[in-house]
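hey can u check if this looks right to u? its 313 residues, i copy pasted from the old doc so theres a chance i mangled smth
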Amino acid sequence: MRDTRESRLLLVLLIAIAFALITVDIRGGEDSPVDGARRAAATVFGPIENGVSGAVDPIGNAVTAVRESGDRHDRLAELERENAALKAELGSDDRGRSRLKQLDKLLKVSGQGQYGIKGAQVIAIGAAQGFSWTITIDAGSDDGIQRDMTVLNGDGLVGRVTTVGPNTATVLLASDPDFTVGTRMEGSDELGFAAGQGDRPLRVELLNGKAEIKKGDRLVTFGSQADKPFVPGVPVGVVSRVDPSGGDLTRTVYVTPYVAFSKLDVVGVVVQAPGKDPRDTVLPKKPQPTPTPTVTVTVTPSAPADGLNQQEQ
């Protein structure tokens, strides 16, 4: 339609009529004269609206589902992250509890033996340095560590310090074939020298070829002059095998060490030797044998039969 004076007058007239119809419809309520026309329009255009709605709603629902799916995915990812963080925290707590337990045992041993120790943590094993049976600890000369100091943990003898840096030190383990330490048997005081054999028990040569040794006997360190490289009284291990004497000047026994060298974590370097030899006081308490229950069966004589009673009468 062209923009003329007549067209503008027609537009104004149509607007006026529309307002008039709206006014009449509102005032008429349910009796409105245009109600029939409105119903007819609804009848005609209703199916079209439903079809359009039916076509649009799945798209809208799909968009909503995708959006909610994204929200669920984000929430799931967040829960997975929280779960991983919780597992890491629990793992850290477990490790912390394990270290706390090791430290507690170490302090107990050092207290019993009156050893002045410097606590340290194992940060590397010998394979990284070209050695078979050594470890590296995170304490060095800045911490008062010196060469030829005894190293122990809450179970017993770990080894001795061989190399010292400002912040780290290398420890030769008692399981190394080049390791040797003087030992003393609990109770009998029989002296000997223990040597490492890798992952096998320590080999101990007793000075007395006729020494009475049996499986289950225990050993501690004898100590060195000026307490270097070994302080006395550190638990070494338990005799697991005794070779026949054979009349030799020495006697060979094999000892299972107290320390699990493949599980080292928290250790202590003895920076101050005890004032006196602790002897056997640092050894763990011997396990008490479990008593074997005995069953006593008492046989009660049965009552005589009635027939026998009658014959006796």
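Residues 215 and 239 are 5 Å apart (CA to CA).
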